[in-house]
Each structure stands twice: as structure tokens, then as C-alpha cells.
Fold this protein.
Amino acid sequence: MKNLTLKSLAKLRPFSPRERFLVLEISRGGAGGFAFSVTKDRSIRIRKRWGKFPREQFLERFAKLMRKRKTIIVADPAIAFTMFLPMRLDRDRGFLKEPIGLLELENLIAKEIGRVFAACRREASAALGIEELDTILVGSRAGAFRVDGYKVLDPTGFEGKRIDGILELTLTTRELFEGWNEFFSARENFFFTEQARAELAVLEKFEGSAANLLMIRPGWALAFILESAPRGTVIYRSGIPWGTDRLPEAIGAALGTDRAVAERLYELYRAGDVSDAVRRSIERIL
């Protein structure tokens, strides 16, 4: 993700001179990250990288550092879940003669979130493999708006009876939320996203609204499909019964060897240094 993000950030939005960013990549195994700045000519300068982010040391100077830079937490899909839902907001009759106001829109969206939240939390907790009470909503936004069927960038200021759009909800684990609570509490200059969502957003800028992303980890794999829907762009997520640790197991079972030998055979296969019989066996497995 780092390379894709760094090459693309400058093209995604106009930066003010010398903006500073801190990106933290959090997974079940810990947190790494990097700090970078955007110069006057919009080039990106990497200032520091961390294989293991020094959280305690950072928190000692937290308030000062947060004022100086925008912080982005990018969570692994194993601990974060993004949902896209069609949204229909019917205005109260008492407001129909008035243009849509910001407060009215926020209230309508908040009611919609309240209406769908229980079902969303159940789905997210099942995908993340945790209890519902340990599944926390950490982000919500709405887009792809229509007012009485007409596309609008922002509904406020328009007159109409009904607002349609796409509601995007991001949920994560209580462990992540409480472990990084200082960042979530800061709010200002703080952003949270799921890794697959962020990577597909970058791909969409360059490839359009039709992209696939496959993420493979030890023990699990996830497929993400970005595509256009009647009311906007959505992302579908599906688990795949595979993982980076499964290939040596499959080779070992097929050839009657232990894991160490299977891993060595696969290395030799990739180097083209195995017999035709072994090559055919591994290719059947693949």
C-alpha cells in the first residue's frame, strides 16, 4: 500500500504548502508507519519510517505533534470493516417548502444510521470474528446524492421531498479503538480508514470505478470488488478459504513431505530448478 499511496497522494487533492502527515498501519500483529511532508512544489518527502511505531514515546508529545501534522490510521481488513448502504431520506412535511438545510440533512443521516446500525454491527462482527458489543462504529459519511432523482454534489440549498444516496460506515474492534483512543479523541486532523477501502479509492482515481483487490495473509484471504451501482460506487467484500500458509501445506500433502521440504520445493519451482514431475504436481496444486 505504501508505494501506491505515495505515488498517488499528490494527484488526489491539492495540498497546501509544506503539509505534514503521519500514516499508521495497524494490524493484529502491531503497528508500523511513516511520516512524510508535501513541499511547495507538491513533491513528497519521506521523513521517517517505523517497522514498529513508538506509541508511548509519541504520546508523550501527542498534543504538540497532532497540531503539526495530519494523522491517518490505516487498519488491516482483519480488524476493520467498511459497509456501503443505499440510503433514502424522506423529508418531514413541515420542511418541504424550505430548501434543505445542513442541520436537517445531518439529522436525517443520523436517524438513518440509527435505523441500520444494529444490522450493520451484526454483519461486521461476524466478518471480524468478534462479539457485537466489541464492534465499534468509528466513521460514517454519505455521498452520491440525489434530490428527487436529480444528481447533486451537495443536497443543501435544494428543494425536494426525498434525498437518496450511499451511506458508508466503517467499524472496527473495541481493542483497536481503546488502544488508540487518544487519536480518535483528537478528531481534528485525524482520519481513519480501512486499508482495502483506501487502496481501492486510489485505484478508482486511475482505473475508474471497476477494480478488484485480493489481499492474502497467513490463514485468510479477502477479495474486494469496486464497481458502479445504480446510486453510486460501492465495494463488495468476500472471504476466500485460502492464505499464504496454505500453499506449503497443499504441496506437502500432495508430495508426501513435511512443511520445510515443501517450502524448499516451491522455491526451487519458482527458480525453474525442479524435475518435470514435480513441476506438474505443483502446477496442478496452483
Q: What stands out?
A: DSSP finds ten helices and twelve strands in the chain. The radius of gyration is 23 Å. Confidence is low (pLDDT under 50) at residues 1-15. Residues 38 and 44 are 5 Å apart (CA to CA).
